[in-house]
């Protein structure tokens, strides 16, 4: 009996070893899926081009506030290119075993020539959003001329949204808790939307930057609403769309518009209206004389 039990334990340990997924395995899995890999490489390429373009656009920016907006905006593609490179390498991606009750419970994938239990999860995207979206809000807040407390509130709520979204994506123990964390993340998101739609428009009107702020506000809110929708219908949520490549392209397309297009529109306006930006107000840096 003891020998039989030892054989069973050894066999179980052997199965576990076979199902371990290395970083190299994840890298090969990504490269073998053309749709998935292209969604990541496209962002790396566009982030690199955006960095070069934004550096050129900001060369003649001189006022303190305008330079702060430029640096905050430039950090968005800088964070993105680092994060997407980590994703495509397999460093910040892996496989998550879905809990009981999930539509993809027991789903398997071929990784490194072995069948493993789990669903592909590029969890590094949440790191991208955690570090890049605060810079988007910082740039928007400075354009609106908001005060430090309100800006801090928006950024804190944003980070809370991203971190709890990560928890929702990685939980394997409970299907219910995945949705609980998703709901918490959405609650943080509503707080950010409130600041963007209610608090900052008044500040922007007072600062004389309402036109560009309202354009960027609408762009940001509409595109950011797409992220929880993709989560809900993708493999992480209801699994109405199971393809990792399609889901990844959905997120990547939103990133391209919400980051690089957003940043280009903002920097182009700042470069052409530096005197307006310099005269707006209340954040930390004093207005230039």
CATH superfamily: Rhodopsin 7-helix transmembrane proteins
Q: Give the CA-based shape.
A: globular
Elements, N to C (H/E)? HHHHEEEEHHHHHH
Number of helices: 10
Number of domains: 1
Percent of sequence in beta strands: under 5%
Radius of gyration: 22 Å
Distance between the termini: 87 Å
User: How would you write the strand order of the largest sheet?
Assistant: 1-4
Specify the structural class: mainly alpha
Let me know the number of strands: 4
Average the pLDDT over all residues and give the rounded result.
Answer: 89
CATH topology: Rhopdopsin 7-helix transmembrane proteins
Name of the CATH architecture: Up-down Bundle
What is the highest CATH level, the class? Mainly Alpha
Oligomeric state of this protein: single chain
Low-pLDDT residue intervals, each spanning 5 or more residues? 9-18, 284-289
Helix content: over 70%
Largest sheet: 2 strands, antiparallel
Question: Can you walk through the features of this model?
Answer:
The protein is mainly alpha-helical. The protein has one domain: Up-down Bundle (Rhopdopsin 7-helix transmembrane proteins). 74% of the residues lie in helices and 5% in strands. The protein has ten helices and four strands, in the order H-H-H-H-E-E-E-E-H-H-H-H-H-H. It has helices spanning 2-19, 23-32, 34-57, 64-89, 124-144, 148-170, 175-207, 210-233, 244-272, 274-279, and strands at residues 94-96, 108-111, 114-117, 119-121. It has a two-stranded antiparallel ribbon. Helix 8 (210-233) runs antiparallel to helix 9 (244-272). It is globular. Mean pLDDT is 89; it is low at 9-18 and 284-289.
């Amino acid at each position: 009996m003891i020998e039989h039990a030892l054989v069973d334990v050894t066999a179980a340990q052997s199965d576990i070893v076979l199902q371990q997924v290395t970083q190299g395995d994840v890298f090969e899995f990504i490269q073998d899926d053309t749709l998935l890999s292209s969604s990541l490489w496209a962002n790396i390429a566009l982030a690199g081009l955006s960095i070069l373009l934004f550096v050129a656009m900001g060369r003649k920016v001189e006022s303190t506030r305008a330079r702060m907006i430029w640096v905050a905006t430039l950090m968005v593609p800088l964070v993105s290119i680092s994060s997407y490179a980590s994703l495509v390498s397999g460093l910040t991606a892996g496989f998550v075993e879905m809990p009981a009750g999930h539509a993809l419970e027991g789903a398997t994938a071929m990784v490194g020539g072995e069948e493993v239990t789990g669903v592909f999860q590029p969890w590094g995207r949440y790191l991208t959003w955690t570090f890049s979206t605060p810079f988007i809000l910082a740039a928007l807040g400075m354009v609106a001329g908001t005060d430090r407390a309100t800006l801090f509130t928006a950024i804190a709520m944003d980070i809370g949204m991203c971190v709890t979204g990560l928890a929702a994506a990685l939980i394997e123990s409970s299907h219910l808790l995945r949705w609980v964390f998703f709901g918490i993340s959405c609650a943080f998101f509503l707080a950010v939307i409130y600041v963007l739609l209610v608090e900052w428009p008044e500040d922007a009107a007072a600062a004389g930057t309402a036109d560009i702020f309202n354009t960027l506000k609408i762009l940001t809110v509409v595109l950011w609403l797409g992220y929880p929708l993709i989560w809900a219908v993708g493999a992480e949520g209801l699994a109405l769309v199971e393809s990792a490549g399609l889901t990844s392209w959905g997120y990547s397309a939103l990133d391209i518009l919400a980051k690089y297009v957003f940043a280009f529109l903002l920097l182009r306006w700042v470069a052409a209206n530096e005197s307006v930006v310099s005269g707006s107000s209340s954040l930390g840096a004093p207005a230039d004389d």
